[in-house]
Design goal:
The protein has 272 residues and is an alpha/beta fold. The protein contains four helices and 29 strands.
């Protein structure tokens, strides 16, 4: 039996299956479909023809636009129909045609999306992804399975992110880019193949990072990617020198972390 708050507004031509949990002041428009294991938090709005399926929890204040399908089964040949999960934080917007899949059983069975995110038309979040907070995915962005997108990342229109790839905090990926390798925090990547082209200085400035700190991060960036050793050796060598700079430490920790993918650089993947 569904649990529906008295203040919820559900159009007569919407379908809310038995078992769904509908919070206070939720609005569900015509021709929407809400599955039996869905939880909609307070003040969620589903516009006409939106679908929320699977074992999916949608946080407070989210808006889901027409033809979006949130909580669909993973698009994986290994998926055998197991019950898996999608969890979405608060105040996210899913524009027209967005698709977000639940996880797969072999990898913990969970896709996680944070809060205050904007997913523009026809963007896609595949199974087992981890998306942070304050992320913007522009139109037609495609995340393959197991991708990690950290906080404040901006992904330009039509870019594609390879499975198991990480995109670090406040990185910027240009439109139509192919993201085949991990992108460092505060990095800027463009092209196909995607090449690291410096730092997201505009984003750092907008986030309140002062000019002196930006110059410090730039020096560290040059030491990492223009030094004589490997990227990881260079990063390790400068750790003590930059221990007092939070942004550089985030980059160094990202580089040092285990990953299934190599690191993007100004040259990796470039045809020579």
């Amino acid at each position: 039996m569904s649990t529906i708050a008295a203040s919820a507004s559900i159009h007569a031509m919407a379908v809310v299956e038995d078992g769904a949990v509908i919070g206070e002041n939720v609005k569900i428009g015509p021709f929407c479909h809400v599955g039996p294991k869905v939880v909609l938090g307070d003040n969620v709005e589903l516009l006409a023809h939106a679908v929320v399926a699977g074992k999916t929890t949608i946080g407070k204040g989210c808006r889901i636009f027409p033809m979006a399908v949130v909580g669909g089964d993973p698009q994986s040949v290994h998926h055998g129909g197991e019950e898996t999960v999608l969890t979405v934080g608060d105040n996210c917007t899913f524009r027209e045609g967005v698709t977000v899949n639940t996880g797969t059983a072999d990898f913990g069975g969970q896709t996680i999306v944070g809060s205050n995110n904007l997913f523009l038309a026809n963007s896609h979040i595949a199974h087992d992804c981890r998306v942070g907070n304050n992320v913007i995915m522009s139109n037609n962005v495609m995340l393959a399975g197991h991708v990690t997108i950290e906080d404040r990342v901006i992904l330009g229109g039509g870019c594609a992110v390879h499975q198991f790839t990480r995109v670090g905090r406040q990185a910027f990926v240009g439109g139509l880019s192919a993201v085949s390798y991990d992108v460092i925090p505060y990095g800027m990547l463009n092209g196909n193949p995607g090449l690291l082209s410096g730092l997201n200085v505009v984003g750092m400035t907008r986030a309140g990072v002062d000019r002196a700190t930006i110059h410090t991060v730039r020096r560290a960036y040059k030491a990492i990617f223009e030094g004589d050793g490997s990227i990881r050796d260079n990063a390790s060598a400068i750790r003590d020198e930059y221990a007092d700079c939070e942004q550089v430490v985030q980059i160094l920790d990202f580089i040092a972390a285990e990953s299934d993918r190599a690191l993007s650089s100004p040259t990796r993947g470039q045809k020579g």
